[in-house]
Structure formats: structure tokens, C-alpha cells
Amino acid sequence: MSKLGLIIRREYLAKVRNKSFVIMTFLSPILMVGMVVLIAYLTKVNDSDKRVIAILNESSYFENDFKITPSTSYVAFKDLSLEKATDSTSNMGFYGLLHIPESTSLLSAAENSSFYTKDTPSTSVIDIIEDVFQERIREVKLEELGVSSAQYADMRNQYEIRTATFTGKVNVKGINEIKAIIGGGFGYMIMMFIIIYGGFVMRSVIEEKTSRVIEVIISSVKPFQLMLGKILGNSLAGITQFAIWIISAGLLMSALVIFLDLDPSGFGNTSPMPGGGMSSLAPNPAADNATLQRYAEELFQIPWLMLICFFILYFLLGYLIYSSIYAAIGAAVDNETDTQQFIFPIILPLMLAIYVGFFSVFNNPHGPIAVGFSLFPLTSPIVMMMRLPGGIGAGGVPIWQLITSLVLLFGTFMGIVWLAAKIYRVGILMYGKKPSYRELIKWLKY
Amino acid sequence: MSIILAAEQVSKQFGNHTALNKVSLEIPKNSIYGLLGPNGAGKTTLIRIINQITYPDSGRVFFDGEALQPKHIAMIGYLPEERGLYKSMKVGEQALYLAQLKGMGKAEAKQKLKYWFDRLDIGDWWNKKIQELSKGMAQKIQFIVTVLHQPKLLIFDEPFSGFDPINANIIKDEILKLREQGTSIIFSTHRMESVEELCEYIALLHNSEKILDGKLSEIKRAYKNNVFKVGLETEHGDDLLKELAHTFQITKTSYDPQDRQLNFRVQLPSDDTREFLAHISARASINNFLETIPSANDIFIQTIQSKNLDE
Questions:
Q1: Contacts of A219 in chain B (CB under 8 A)
Q2: A212, A221, A445 ranked by CB distance to B82: nearest
Q3: Which of A189, A198, A291, B63 could in theory staple to B72 by disulfide, Cβ–Cβ 3.0 to 4.6 A?
């Protein structure tokens, strides 16, 4: 086996045999699934928290307008004074009392109504009550204007413009966002991988320094070989961990779905709407299916193979750039507490890439900010991955941008690895010095 | 006499700091060569250049007659002063790894490791982790790993630090055996008594420059200053001393009238002792007469002090 192979093998084994690594590998999926279950459970608990609102209606309006929902129900008080009604409401533990005084018109009844609660009422409850009033008031006003409720429902249909590219391809609304989310997923994975496993590389370098094994090793191999072996060995360990996470999280999820009968797709669904009169407001099911099909088609048309190829390319270059910086930091310091001042400038462009990427690519995948950040080599692996699901060439990322971004990234990769190797070479043999940036620049000249 | 390693006018600069200034050395084969000097003199830099960890700014280094190149790494064994092992790795696995990095095959390395483990009586450590061993125990492993690939040149930087006296002796004997088997050894240390014991040749580095080198016995001869320790038996010690002080430089006198023992040191103008001996043998009986030869430690201190005075 070559020396590089030996180093990679040792680094890999040292990492995957490490107790905390093993624990994290198997605990994280459980924690993740546990979180999902907890959130699902909490959502259910929240839903089941029923509120009872008492209504003292002295007018002849709003008789049957307050409809029971899964979270709210109503109790009507009859022939009670407001004072007594308030007392009963608080004695019986109801959420609040809605008082609609006797009035000559619906408008004045609404005007003079009050809602009494023990503490400040939650905004969602107020929204529910206000919506009921609002709807009725609107109907009355529309009637005065001579508009029928059917006409009004028709008016409320939302207008959607049909969009198409110059070549005539019909665009699906929101597909940019979906594509950005897919790309964002790739970008986010790159960022997480860099932060977690770049840190591994750094700690591994620090460990070699503190255990003083470093000089023994580099009397046998070149410092650059050692650095490269470290980066590769640790990233292989990282890929192993990532793969275990994805597989086991998938298995656990499906096991949960089967055993606990949780319906993951059900979380997003809204409960069926009551009231037949509203059906005209719901989108036409046939049209819905067609749209879904267009979405599916559009997703199918995302060039997955190209996407995965570029993901691997951007991932490798990006990860190698950042992890060699991490290795250089590890070499420059004596212990982990000294790394803070150097870590922040690394995290910054990564965070910037994620946030700026999400906001600007979400809005406009080809706007100036999106383009700029997808060319800048420290952010391009993440931001370009967010843009790429839109395709390459017409309607997608222009080829010149892709090439420029890759050339810049590759150039930066060569430059940074060269610089990092220089700092690494000097740093690993320096003990007891707390290095400043000025010191590091001096090392480059050694 | 053939040369295993030669440095010619080697200089190395770190920023504004000169670590080595035109240092030239020749290290003879099959000998133990002491590389001496105070902290910061440039010893470690020179050793790192020999190990190709750093490279000289100017000057050349030759290994066994060839310009120093990467293939020579496998022929050098280096025990650094700042040394250690991976703490959470098992002893055997780690020794194998380090041996393979030096270019040994796995089977060969395993076999030789077995031999050395038995020889130093540590056969049952194979599956222990380094963090379970004491510092001295870990040093033994480190020593084995350094010499395992049978290098032509061994470099020991403070090899005895971290050893108790018993184990230090075991290691010293092993070093001597290795020399008998034909290995050349560079030995860098502050411990002068081990220099005296082990080294045939020395070089003294000070402020990045070589200020002295050669065969230890020749250096000592050059540094002796014709001071002799004299022990006489006489009843008239005080009178004799007074008389001698007229003609000779006498120091460190002591006289015990009861035992009739007179001890002193005398500085003679040359290494010709006949005149002085004739002078005193006519006046007292001589118990002992011994030339004082400077220790390596004396030479070390004397040379560096005189160098400091010059500057």
C-alpha cells in the first residue's frame, strides 16, 4: 500500500473506531426521528386542546353563524344578565364570553359586541370571532348593493396568470421555489458536511500536535501527504456516517409509519371543509390533477444526472478548499480553544452562501446577487447548486457562468491548498505559540 | 574513513532569524557523533534538514556520498526530542503503521517487531493502547519504531529523557550494540556525561554556527592546559608550599599536618613534567601525580563562554 493509502486507512479507522463517533452515528438518526415524532405528538396535543366559548346573544342576529370546529366549540347562554353570564363563564372554566347586545340592526349588534376573557385572549381566537362577524357584515353590505352570494363567491376566485418561456414551454407556478429547495438541499448538505467533517480534520491535526507524534510521522512522509491523507480519511469516515444516517433514518421512518400508523403525508392536509355552499371555492379537482402532473413532469425534467455530477464536483472542490483551511488552522494552534478566531471567518461565507442563496435564488435564480455568489469561489459550491436544478443553457444557468464558476473554484482550490499546506508544514512543528494572522503570513515565507 | 553524512555550508533562515549559518559537518560511518549546543543553537533545525522535514536555504547535504534525496528517508531513523504516539491506538497496530510508513512490508515489520518486543521484554503489550502505558514504556515503543527498519543512520535527540536510570541503561546498551553492527549514530543531547560515555566525535553549535568539531579525544588533548593534581607526603608542608609558589603556579592547596598530606594543583608552562617532578621528588615523597583532562562539560562551557566574551 502506498504511504498515502496507509495514512488514509489509519485516519479512517481511527475515526470510525472512535467511541463518540460511533455513538453519534447511531444516536443521531434516533434523535432525528424522535424529534419528528415529538413534533407530530405535540401538534396533536395542541389540536386536542379544545376551547369552549360562551355566547350571550341578546340580539336576533348571528344565530347560527358560530360553527363548532375541532378546536373551538360554543355554548349559548339564554336569558341571563351579562354579570351572571360572566360569572358562569369563569366558574365553568370556559375560555371566554362573547356578548352580543340587543340591537336593531346587524351592523350595530356587531358594533356593540364585546368579548370577555380571564386574561388577554389569543389572537387566533379573536381571528375566528372577527372572521364570523366580518363575513356576515360583508354579506349584508353586498345584499344592500344587490350582489347575490353566488356572484360574490364567483368574484372571490383567485386570478392566476399563465406563464410560459419565450420558447413556448408552459411554466408551472412555484416551480422555481421547488427547484431552489431541491438545490438548497444539496447546498445545505455541502455546508453541513464542511462544518462537521472539516472540524474532524482540524481536531485530528490538533491531536497529532498535542500527542507530539507529528515529527515522528513527517520524518517518514511529506507534510502534504499527511494533510491530504487526513482530509481524505476523515471525509471517507464522514461519508460513511452520512450514509448510515440516511439509510437508518429512512428505515426508522418507515418502521414508525408502519408500527405507529402515522401518516406523514397527513400533516399537511387540511381537514375537509364543512358546508356545501363553499364547494365552488375549492379548486376544480380535474384541473388540480393536471397541475400536479405538470409539476411531476417538471420535476422529472430536472436533469438529475447532471445535477448529481455537478454536486459531486462542487462538493469535492468546496470540501477540499474548506477542509484544507481547517487543517491549516489545526496546525497553527496548540489546542482547540485557540481556534475560535480562525473558525469564524470560515463559517461566515458558508452562512452567507446559505442565507443569501436561499433569499436571492428563491426570488430570482438568475439575478445579479445569485449570479455573483455563484461565481465567488467560497460560496459558489452552495449557491450554484441552488441554481443548477433550473438547468443549464437556455432558461437555466448560462454556460459561461458555470465554466467561470468552476474555473474560479478550481483556481482557488489550488491556491488555498498550496497556502494551507505551507501553513500546515510550518505550524505542525511550532509549539507553545499563539499565532496571529501576521504570524501566519510570516510562515508563508519560510 | 568514509563519511555517512556531510553538510556543506548549510544555512537556514526563518524570517529574520538565522537558524543555521554556513554549517559544515562530516559524520564518519560507524561512529557515534555528538551534536551539542545550548538551546536554540540550531541543532534541531540541522536534524530536521537531515530528515528532509525542512530544506536548507543554501548549502548542500550528502548522504553516503549522494546528494540527499527522498529515497534516503527510509535509510534514516529519527527519534525526535518532541516525540509521542497516537494515544488511542494499540501498540502493535501503531508500530506496524509507523514501520510501514518507513517503507517496510507488513510481514517483515511484524516479524521484526516481535523480535524487538521480546528483546526488550514487552511482548505482552501488543494489544494495549498507548494511553494505558507509562511514559517510560511508551518511550521503549518509540525507540523500537525508530530502529526497526535497520537504518544506516540513526538520529537520537535527547534519547534518554523520559527513561528511569535502569531503562536508560538498557537503551544505552542497545545504542552501543547498534553501533557495533555498523550503524552510524547522531546523538544530540545536553547530558554531557552520556556524551563522554558514548561519543567518539562531537560538534558544538552555538548561535547558529559550528564553533568546534572533531574527535572527542583530540579535542580534549587540545583543551588540556597542563594542570596537574599533585599529592605529596611531607612533614614541612607549609614551607614547601611557600617555596614552590616562588617558581610554579600553585592553586587549591590543602595540608593536613597530622596525616602529613599535602595536596595542590600546579600549572606547568608546557606538558614537560620532568623538571617539576625532579624538583619535588628531591623534597618529598610523591603519593600521586595526575594530569587533569577537561570533561566534555568543561569544554562545552569554556568554549561557549569564550565565544560569548568575543561577541
A1: 51, 53, 73, 76, 78, 80
A2: A212
A3: B63
CA B175, A220, B188, B219: dihedral to nearest 10 degrees? 80
What's the CA gap between B287 and B273, in Å, rounded? 16
- Establish how many alpha carbons lie within 13 A of residue B205's alpha carbon, considering only the half-sphere containing its beta carbon: 29
The reply to whether B294 touches chain A by the CB within 8 Å rule is no
CATH class of A49-156: alpha beta
All residues of chain B having their beta carbon less than 8 Å from the beta carbon of residue A213 are 83-86
Does the ipTM surpass 0.95?
Answer: no
Give the separation between CA A232 and CA A6, rounded to whole angstroms: 11
| Per-residue pLDDT at B258 | 82
Write out pLDDT tens, residues B262-306: 888 888 887 788 888 888 888 888 888 888 888 888 888 888 888
**Pick from A414, A228, A237, A435: which is nearest to A331 by CA?**
A435
Closest C-alpha among A138, A132, A169, A133 to residue A153: A138
Mutate to test the interface with A, among B44, B76, B82, B146 (most CBs of A within 10 A): B82
Q: Is the Cβ pair A216, B98 closer than 8 Å?
A: yes
Domain boundaries, chain A: 3-37+174-261+285-443, 49-156
B 118-157 residues with CB < 8 A to A: 142, 145
Contact A66, A52 (CB under 8 A): no
Sheet of strand B32-36: strand arrangement: B76-79, B153-157, B184-188, B32-36, B201-206, B209-215
Contact B73/A442, CB-based, under 8 Å?
no
Q: CATH says B225-291 is which class?
A: alpha beta
Across the range A392-419, mean pLDDT stands at 88
Q: What are the extents of the domains in chain B? A: 3-221, 225-291
CB of B222 within 8 Å of a chain A CB? The answer is no
Contact with chain A for residue B159, Cβ under 8 A: no
**Contact flag A216-B48 (C-beta cutoff 8 Å):** no
* Local structure of B54: helix, strand or coil: coil
Residue A195, CA distances (Å) to A235, A343, B88, B276 in order = 12, 10, 24, 83
Confidence bin at B8 (pLDDT 50/70/90): very high
CB-based contact, B43 to chain A, within 8 Å: no
CB neighbours (10 Å) of residue B200?
15
Query: What residues in A contact B76, CB-CB < 8 Å?
Result: 219
State whether CATH 3.40.50.150 applies to domain B3-221.
no
Question: Whole-number mean pLDDT of chain B?
Answer: 87
| 3-class secondary structure, B267 | strand
| Distance from C-alpha of A116 to C-alpha of A98, rounded to nearest angstrom | 6
